[in-house]
Amino acid sequence: MGPRHQSAESRGADRSYVKMPSFLLLEALCLFLFAGVPPSLPLQEVHVSQETIGKISAASKMMWCSAVVDILFLIDGSHSVGKGSFERSKHFAITVCDALDINLRKVRVGAVQFSSAPRLEFPLDAFSTQQEVKAKIKGMVFKGGRTETGHALKYLLRKGFPGGRNASVPQVLVIVTDGRSQGHVALPAKQLKQRGVAVFAVGVRFPRWEELHTLASEPWEQHILMAEQVEDAANGLFSTLSGSAICTITSPDCKVQPHPCQRKTLETVRELAGHAPCWRGSRGTDAMLAALCPFSSWKRVFLTHPATCHRTICPGPCDSQPCQNGGTCVPEGLDRYHCLCPPAFGGEADCAPKLSLECRVDVLFLLAGSAGTTPEGFLRAKAFVKRFAQAALGEDSRARIGVARYAAELALAVPVGEYQDVPDLVRSLDAVPFGGGGGATLTGSALRQAAERGFGSAARTGQDRPRRAVVLMTEARSQDEVAGPARFARARELLLLGVGSEAVRAELEEITGSPERVMVYTGPQDLFSQIPKLHGKLCSRQRPGCQAQSLDLVFMLDASASVGPENFAQMQSFVRSCALQFDVNPDVTQIGLVVYGARVQTAFRLDTHLTRAAVLRAMSQAPYLGGAGSTGMALLHIYDKVMVVHKGARPGVPKAVVVVTGGSGAEDAAVPAQKLRDNGVSVLVVGVGPVLTEALRRLAGPRDSLIHVAAYEDLRHHQDMLMEWICQEAKRPVNPCRPSPCLNKGTCVLHDGSYRCECRAGGEGPHCERRAVPGAGNRAGNETVGTSALMELPLQ
Question: Are 106 and 67 in contact (CB under 8 A)?
């Protein structure tokens, strides 16, 4: 018996089980069985909150790499990996391909499987579409055999990337293996990296991390991943590619951040299991001694290694704090969430009362999906539409919703009215694809197509047709002209509303025709607060304005040093918003601009710009002058050089001047202002400042035509008041002889509801604009009645 015990101790764990207690035997058996199945615990784990893990997973689905790059998958198909882990390796490769713009001009993808020898599955130039590459990877057959990673690397050193391009194209090698090579890998791996190949080592099953470190490029922490956690691994791979400028993947809203993580290895360790009686002999004697002999067991245990993982984090659905009234937001994937609401709000979306649309309206949401749109921006727009539908569509609602996506062309994703049930509508919105963000941003073309076919072909008119609205959601400026298509849409009685960032505010104002129809958000958290505003605008009827009323309108801006350049910019923004209210063309409204400071300057005359878009551009380019300004001199300049026929003013058309000033230099302005009023020109003063000066009160005149604004940033809140005044002045009776349309000191005479010019000797023409040629006939008196349409306006 003694020799047998001695032999058992010397041979190790395989014989020590003879004396092992039953519970240890059971534990060893479980560990042995556990080694034959896929791991149930993550072998690379990021130590962050569950919310951040959700954001990492969500970001992995939003990534998109469109660059000139060759990516080769080198997939371990040996027996040590096994069929199950081989399938997981394929799944990881397919997931990576989901985020690649695969075509022969951009991203090329190839695959090599290796075990005892490498086998080319398909070269980089074999397939030109994502679907073809994914199908080929999915069809790869497990080889089996030894793990000869070194041979596979030498194959690539000899052959290069099969089907790859020249050395100027970045090369990325993604090795998916358990790191248990039966040969040397250090030298060929080093040589590949010296050639400029970026090498990712992606572990499967229970990887040997030391070998993965040998294979991967530096920094190791950014090039070693775990295929078992496929979304985390895909995020890590693209985070590294974006950091190395190989791919530009995410928008500024998404950030690559370091996070603490740990990697685990499954290793066999020897443990003391206990002691058992045994007989021991000694050399040179036949004596046998009784003793307690130790026996050991072998266990498979996880050993942890701390590390740092770099992952991309994007704003989540709960970042905007959508749950109101004390509700708690619980994220659910990319752009979904649900609210845990207090008892009083438990039945409401976002813990807030529903905003049911009571008006009868068809709404088409127009979402930008072009190259200027980010994936997360498109997802936020979809989330906005879903939340709006959930909040605004009730059982009694008479509203219907549709969604279209556009880039270079319009794609009607959800036709208006196709879904009456809100959950069905929300599910259909979930299925609307981003489309990869390709193509130009042709907003004008999309508006025209939406007007032509966005609401179906039914030609309902009058009371039978509901109000129709297009809600444009974009963060990208249009690459085509928008003014014409917008007029085309409005002519078809479409209400145009805009939702976008500050960068596209001016373009949205031009499209919708009014700042009141534009909702601008400052960031992702502010977007969803626009839902109640949109609800109100869809059902409110705009007050009838004076956009179709003929009018000659001059804005006069104080550009003196007392105002300053920042406040002058606020003035420019204010008058631009006002100008958007008018139909600018030679037959309806003409707009001019005068600025004054160290000097008085006509920025542009009444007849300079014939379209609203041109007026808006010119207003933005108006110069800041500085110096000391004189309001009186500026008003006299308008009297002599702006509100006159030979400078673009039209006879028989209402005329108005809007003075926007800080009040300094207005002491001499009362008399010139009254001179303009006596000549048929209305004058309104917008005075800015905490104190209203007496000079501004005198400038306002006997009718108290004055709007007092406390600060320049508050100008926008007084736009409605200004528009109301302008519309009233546009409807006042007009004397076509004030200001006089007659030139060369001719006299204007009212005549049968119109006027005529009595020219002095030597003058002729409808407005005495020509000098008479001597001997050309008797033109004594030379009374000529004007023949233009404007002269025929009746005296009101």
Answer: yes
